[in-house]
Specification:
The chain is α/β, with parallel strands linked by helices. The chain has nine helices and 24 strands. The protein has helices at about 5-15, 40-50, 95-105, 170-175, 190-205, 220-230, 275-285, 335-345, 405-420, and strands at about 30-35, 55-60, 110-115, 120, 125, 135, 180-185, 210-215, 245-250, 270, 310, 350-355, 365, 370, 425-430, 435-440, 445-450, 455-460, 465-470, 475, 480, 485, 490-495, 505-510. The chain has an eight-stranded parallel barrel with strand order 1-2-3-8-9-10-11-12, surrounded by five helices. The chain has a four-stranded antiparallel beta sheet with strand order 15-16-17-24, with helices on one face. It binds acarbose derived hexasaccharide (AAO). Acarbose derived hexasaccharide binds near residues 123, 181, 214, 215 and 252. GO terms for molecular function: alpha-amylase activity; metal ion binding. This is Alpha-amylase. Keywords: Calcium, Carbohydrate metabolism, Chloride, Disulfide bond, Glycosidase, Hydrolase, Metal-binding, Signal. Its EC number is 3.2.1.1.
Length: about 525
């Protein structure tokens, strides 16, 4: 018989392993290519993400989903599964497989957004209006392509009058009832767990590195643990033997509900929603917040432990008023603040970082609510998604925002790789909104979010020399295209940042040295 402690060690090892994103070549960040077509992602891995040190991508749900006409092809139709066939708005199974292979070949991992809590909405109708054309009936709870039948849903378990979640304070409702009327799968059933695991294992065989698991708050941790336990190790064509899939779970926990993020952290990482909500408040200087208060950013702000956190400035929900975080969230619609917030996140050691890459839509506010928060990606009149064209200046066209290609953000992704493993060091602040910190002797960043100039000499902890600022420009052919920073033999350097600069921050790192 195995000693008890050995089993404990084995279990602990298993779950901790699911916290590891298996990023390659010292890379550190993930980018969410929201609603991109597989063909465009494959090209982006080869032409941009690989060469610029991006570690991985989160892709939109690849499985068969409902196709809706009212509203017209909303982005959120992909959060209403019809089955686990792999044809979606982003492309075919063959295109998905090709993309995963090509991204893996340039060292960029693929993380799949999996929707396993539910199928389509109860009012989803009956017919073949699904992305692979499979017939289904929402009212009969019949999804023959899986197959799931009326026996595989939680309708009998839920105790609310509407059958929907009515009170987030009641964990039973939140897990057993329908989230916004979405048909709630009975993940306590061996059969359902098996179907979910088969779906995820198919993706593991194709070479993905892990999963963003949607709506985890609405599933019992024990059911998830069972399903995750059925997952294979990653494909050894690209990952070393015994590598567990990286799991990051979407749990919105801003405090004050019966369910907390901590219920899930032993199973994998969890999305830290407090991070973007707080950082937005600080960068906007709301509620008396100041950048100088972020000296103890991370656990010191009440966030979950560093090893459990997946962090982001905004996500596909809260950039358009869905999910949680509220008005403080800084998105590409406020580009100057967004670049600063993303820069801060990428410079700071806390968490596994995810950068958002969005599409533009026609915002139309009535009484503070965006009437067009449903709008899908740039599309042709038949509803098919447009490719992502790349402009001569490397930005994207046709409504694709491509924040990840903005020089400041791309260069901070590289900064994070260069300083990986170095401690947070050499903090300085002016007790207001001017702050600076380093990462050991590998990098240093200075922010001026005050309404006056910054003009100060700071101890950077960096070796002496001339460095290119990677925000106003970068190092190119042995010279700086933007500001130049002189670090003396004593590690001290003079910084001048006008509050009117296009981007009021400066960053230097070991590889931006001339
Ligand atoms: C669509 C329609 C619905 C329709 C449904 C079915 O919009 O009207 O009933 O189809 O026909 C996405 C869209 C949904 C869409 C759905 C399916 O966002 O609009 O519904 O696809 O097509 C909760 C969940 C969280 C979820 C989030 C949106 O906990 O898991 O809602 N996010 C994921 C995805 C998301 C997707 C789904 C899940 C479903 O990222 O894209 O939905 O697959 C509180 C709770 C949160 C809760 C929010 C939502 O948050 O804590 O758990 O999130 O409420 O309202 C303060 C509080 C904060 C609170 C927040 C908002 O900030 O501090 O805790 O206020 O009240």
């Amino acid at each position: 018989m195995r000693p008890y402690w050995l089993i404990l060690v084995a279990l602990f090892g298993l779950s901790v392993a699911q916290h590891n994103p298996h990023l390659k070549h010292g890379r550190t960040s993930i980018v969410h290519l929201f609603e991109w077509r597989w063909a465009d992602i494959a090209a982006e891995c080869e032409r941009f993400l690989g060469p610029n040190g991006f570690g991985g991508i989160q892709i939109s749900p690849p499985n068969e989903h409902i196709v809706l006409s009212s509203p017209w092809r909303p982005w959120w139709q992909r959060y209403q599964p019809i089955g686990y066939n792999l044809c979606s708005r982003s492309g075919t199974e063959a295109e998905l497989r090709d993309m995963i292979t090509r991204c893996n070949n340039v060292g960029v991992n693929v993380y799949v957004d999996v929707v396993i809590n539910h199928m389509c909405g109860a009012g989803g109708g009956e017919g073949t209006h699904s992305s692979c054309g499979s017939w289904f009936s929402a009212s009969k709870r019949d999804f023959p392509s899986v197959p799931y039948s009326v026996l595989d849903f939680n309708d009998n378990k839920c105790k609310t009058a509407s059958g929907d979640i009515e009170n987030y304070g009641d964990p039973y409702q939140v897990r057993d009832c329908r989230l916004v009327s979405l048909l709630d799968l009975a993940l306590e059933k061996d059969y359902v767990r098996g179907k979910v695991a088969d779906f995820m294992n198919t993706l593991i065989d194709m070479g993905v590195a892990g999963f963003r698991v949607d709506a985890c708050k609405h599933m019992w941790p024990g059911d998830l643990q069972n399903a995750y336990g059925r997952l294979k190790d990653l494909n050894t064509k690209w990952f070393s033997g015994g590598s567990r899939p990286f799991i990051f779970q979407e749990v919105i926990d801003l405090g004050g509900e019966g369910i907390s993020a901590a219920d899930y952290t032993q199973l994998g990482r969890v999305t830290e929603f407090k991070y973007g909500a707080k950082l937005g408040t600080v960068i906007r200087k709301w509620n008396g917040e100041k950048l100088s208060y972020t000296r103890n950013w991370g656990e010191g702000w009440g966030f979950m432990s560093n090893n459990n956190a997946l962090v982001f400035v905004d996500n596909h929900d809260n950039q358009r008023g869905h999910g949680a975080g509220g008005a403080s969230i800084v998105t590409f619609w406020d580009p100057r603040l967004h670049k600063m917030a993303v820069g801060y996140m990428l410079a700071h050691p806390y968490g596994v970082t995810r950068v958002m890459s969005s599409f533009r839509w026609d915002r139309h506010f009535v009484n503070g609510k965006d009437q067009n928060d449903w709008m899908g990606p740039p599309s042709y009149s038949d509803g098919s998604t447009k490719p992502v064209p790349i402009n001569p200046d490397q930005t994207c066209g046709d409504g694709w925002v491509c924040e990840h290609r903005w020089r400041q953000i791309k260069n901070m992704v590289i900064f994070r790789n260069v300083v990986n493993g170095q401690p947070h060091s050499n903090w300085w602040d002016n007790q207001s909104n001017q702050v600076a910190f380093g990462r050991g002797n590998r990098g240093f960043i200075v922010f001026n979010n005050d309404d006056w100039d910054l003009d100060v000499t700071l101890d950077t902890g960096m070796p002496g020399g001339t460095y290119c600022d990677v925000i106003s420009g970068q190092k190119e052919n042995g010279r700086c295209t933007g500001k130049q920073i002189q670090v003396g033999g004593d590690g001290r350097a003079h910084f001048k940042i006008s509050n009117r600069d296009e981007d009021p921050f400066v960053a230097i790192h070991a590889e931006s040295k001339l």
